[in-house]
Amino acid sequence: MLSNKTIEIVKATAPVLEVKGKEITTNFYKSMFAAHPELLNVFNHANQQKGRQQTALANTVTAAAHYIDRLEVLVPVVKQIAHKHRSLAVKAEHYPIVGEFLLKAIKEVLGDAATEEILEAWGEAYHEIAAIFIQVEKEMYEEAERQENGWKDFKTFKIVKKAKESGNITSFYLAPVDGKKLPSFKPGQYITVRVKINGEEFLQNRQYSLSDVPNDEAFRISVKREDEQTPAGKVSNFLHEAPNGLEVEVSPPAGDFILEEDEKPVYFLAGGVGITPLLSMLKTSVTSQPNRKVTFIHAARNSDVLAFEVEVKEAIKVTKEGKSYLCYSNPTNKDLKLRNFDHEGYVDRAFLEEIVEEKDAHFYVCGPVPFLQTVVNELKQLEVKEENIHYEFFGPAMKLEEATTV
């Protein structure tokens, strides 16, 4: 238990951390990786380059400062992060290293303001918080290994099939090299795929949603080729060029962005490749609860990059009360001629007011950050309760209101 004095000191630093948080975490990662380059085999390099990992950690540290006397408030956040850690094989022995360099970063950024008393208090607080993460993750590792057909950390798989879903999305079917059956998973969960790319010193980890329902033979992930951004997506491009038979490493399924299987109506709102976890949820929902009211909304630029249109329509046919809508923000001339979509433009409040018939429903949202920001905000403006809105970032979780600054 932390002393009252330690709690007071940590809470008093919260305003400073809100201002200096990202500067501290940027310094932290730079120093830690310089001293322990082997940890670059664990972390997602793309999220580091984009600053998303630094922002996510800064948010977590600031939240810890605010709620150090009520750590139970942080349990949902801890569990979400712990899922990602377990999927990346973050271990208990990594936490002392993180603590050492986090305290060094606080001292370096805050200078004389970071007194010995403050650093000692934060050292005690970090030890307490780390113990919670380590225990939660220990239970997750044990559960992943203990489940039927489960395993620990990473296991060798191979690409047994590739299927082009659109102009920029390809599905990859991954099967265990040892020929064993797969564990089940909850719709909406993801796996970590770890690859060795020629010319890269360190292993590359990426987390991809499972885009189909569970089966014994192969996991399906559906990956967007990221060659229009800077830096280009190393792993996505590597996979798109990979031949069948290529071996990769895969972690057991993880994640807490999962389908609530109650009787409430459910709305799925997908932006681009954000359809991947929602498609798994949709196909599971209509099979297990065919009487449940389901509405699926998919937003894409146009038909050239639209994926899974047939799978969505086939799934909707299974349910007795199902509807699907297709939104194109930039339809092609062919699209305009055929009128093969339901709404032109972005998913906005006017469109949602027309489609959403029940406020007391579950809303699952996944897609690019601007899509998440817009849709979640508009749902709140429509007076949908916050606890009924479920969304997931691809990558480290951030606050929606600050995500565009990253």
Topology:
Blueprint: H1 4-12, H2 14-35, H3 45-50, H4 52-66, H5 75-88, H6 95-110, H7 116-146, E1 155-164, E2 169-176, E3 190-195, E4 204-209, E5 219-224, H8 234-241, E6 247-250, E7 266-271, H9 275-288, E8 294-300, H10 309-318, E9 322-328, H11 333-338, E10 343-344, H12 349-355, E11 362-366, H13 369-381, E12 389-392
Parallel strand pairs: 7-8, 7-11, 8-9, 9-10, 11-12
Antiparallel strand pairs: 1-2, 1-6, 2-5, 3-4, 3-6
Describe this protein's structure.
By secondary structure, the chain is an alpha/beta fold. The protein contains 13 helices and 12 strands. The longest helix is centred in the N-terminal third of the chain and has 31 residues, at 116-146. The relative contact order is 0.10. Mean pLDDT is 91; it is low at 400-406.
Intertermini distance: 36 Å
Give the C-alpha Rg.
Answer: 22 Å
Given the C-alpha coordinates, what overall shape results?
A: globular
Helix content bin: 40-55%
Fourth-tier CATH superfamily name of the largest domain? Globins
Estimate the mean pLDDT confidence: 91
How many strand elements?
Answer: 12
The SSE order reads HHHHHHHEEEEEHEEHEHEHEHEHE
Count of discrete domains = 3
CATH class call of the largest domain:
Mainly Alpha
Lateral strand order in the biggest sheet: 4-3-6-1-2-5
| Largest sheet geometry | 6 strands, antiparallel
Q: Looking at CATH, which topology of the largest domain would you report?
A: Globin-like
CATH architecture descriptor of the largest domain = Orthogonal Bundle
Domain Globin: 1-138
Protein name: Flavohemoprotein
EC number: 1.14.12.17
Binding site for heme b: 85
